[in-house]
Design brief:
The chain is of the alpha/beta class and 134 residues long. It has a single domain, classed as Alpha-D-Glucose-1,6-Bisphosphate, subunit A, domain 3 (Alpha-D-Glucose-1,6-Bisphosphate, Chain A, domain 3, 3-Layer(aba) Sandwich). It is globular and about 35 Å long. The chain starts with 10 loop residues before the first strand and ends in a 7-residue tail after the last helix.
Length: 134
């Protein structure tokens, strides 16, 4: 896994060289172990690579959580995603997006309860933890 994808505010890189389905599934598996009990909101932007990365995210989350815990909201804006994480009182959420970056890039915005952001560097640290919850 390319370590430079873990940024201060998110996880992002060039698709598929730096970030791809395998990378995202591995990250999502670690996130599934990290989030407390409850639902996880999953959304994605309109990039052509986003549906495949959202599917890989759902697959990774399902390895450590019941499938019913993932609330896939499909294509949405990031503000809509934040709203739904709060409105559904979800344990957290993952938005597949590279935001304003070039379309050749993609990534993940990760939030906990209350849509409080987890930085890419926070996610990187929890990936190296033994299978314990935060």
């Amino acid at each position: 896994m390319v370590q430079s994808i873990f940024k201060a505010y998110d996880i992002r890189g060039y698709y598929p060289e730096e970030i791809n389905a395998r990378t995202v599934e591995e990250i999502a598996t670690a996130l599934g172990r990290h989030f407390p009990a409850g639902s996880i909101v999953l959304g994605h932007d309109g990039r052509t690579s986003s549906p495949a990365l959202a599917f890989a995210t759902a697959r990774g989350l399902a390895l450590t959580r019941p499938r019913s815990a993932v609330v896939d909201i499909g294509v949405c804006t990031t503000p809509m995603f934040y709203f739904l994480v709060n409105n559904l009182r979800a344990a957290g959420g993952v938005m597949v997006t590279a935001s304003h970056n070039p379309r050749a890039m993609n990534g993940l915005k990760v939030v906990g309860r209350g849509a409080v952001p987890l930085s890419g560097t926070d996610v990187k640290k929890l990936m190296h933890r033994p299978h314990a919850s935060a």
